[in-house]
Design brief:
With 232 residues, the chain is an all-alpha fold. It has 7 helices and no strands. The protein has helices spanning 20-45, 51-72, 87-115, 131-161, 166-180, 187-204, 207-228.
Length: 232
């Protein structure tokens, strides 16, 4: 009587991880898409585009850059943190976003006192031209753009740079994130938010808590603009 044999279970092939190629592609694509889309909407609108369009361009550039990077080799959203996480960690992210927003009021006062500079390149986004435009800016700028930027700066940027060290990756991605918002009154707040979100992403390995923090920060800012009628 011959012994029966059982074929061993197949060993899954190792999954590719994000690398320098994806990071370079995402960074270049983000800049190219920003410029191309701004030029395109400028031609179409024949002047200064409406605030919702400006916000949408920012979000589309981030999503497009991440999408192009993922198409190269790592074709899975989990590589940039799109994975499930407990709701309590999402709530924690939202709470930290509110805390950073409160801290940003102090940072803005300090920045203006030191530099005397009150300029903000994002000021055009606060020029609502009606309730529909205001609602679109709040929804796109408060929900869509934060997710796109977190996928780009934390999911892709931090995800690749953490191989050179978590502290370096945290500070570098936070600095680039802040510079992307300009050297102005929001720079310091953007840097702090970038640091907080990098820590959130490192601890949870999910993009949702950092996206919640970013969204909360943006929503408070835009809603305050709408209610008060002036830039916070």
């Amino acid at each position: 009587m011959s012994e029966s044999t059982v074929d061993p279970a197949p060993v899954p092939a190792p999954q590719r991880e994000l690398g320098w190629l994806e990071l370079a592609t995402g960074a270049v694509s983000y800049v190219v898409l920003q410029v191309a889309l701004f030029v395109a909407v400028g031609v179409v609108t024949e002047g200064t585009p409406p605030a919702p369009v400006l916000v949408a361009v920012s979000g589309a550039s981030a999503f497009g850059a991440v999408g192009l990077a993922l198409l190269l080799r790592v074709r899975r959203l989990s590589a940039v943190g799109v994975v499930r996480t407990p709701w309590r960690t999402v709530a924690l992210g939202a709470g930290l976003g509110a805390a950073v927003w409160l801290l940003s009021r102090v940072l803005i006062v300090v920045y203006v006192a030191i530099t005397g500079d009150t300029s903000d390149p994002q000021e055009a986004l606060t020029l609502f031209s009606g309730p529909v435009a205001a609602t679109l800016v709040i929804l796109i700028g408060g929900l869509v753009v934060p997710l796109g930027e977190e996928l780009l700066f934390r999911g892709l940027g931090y995800g690749v740079l953490r191989r050179v060290g978590r502290v370096v990756a945290t500070l570098l991605t936070a600095a680039i994130f802040a510079l992307a918002h300009g050297l102005n009154v929001v720079f310091a707040a953007a840097f702090v938010l970038g640091v907080v979100n990098a820590v959130l992403y490192e601890r949870t390995r999910s993009i949702w808590p950092s996206a919640a923090a970013h969204a909360t920060f943006n929503l408070i800012s835009f809603v305050l603009v709408l209610v008060v009628g002036s830039q916070p």
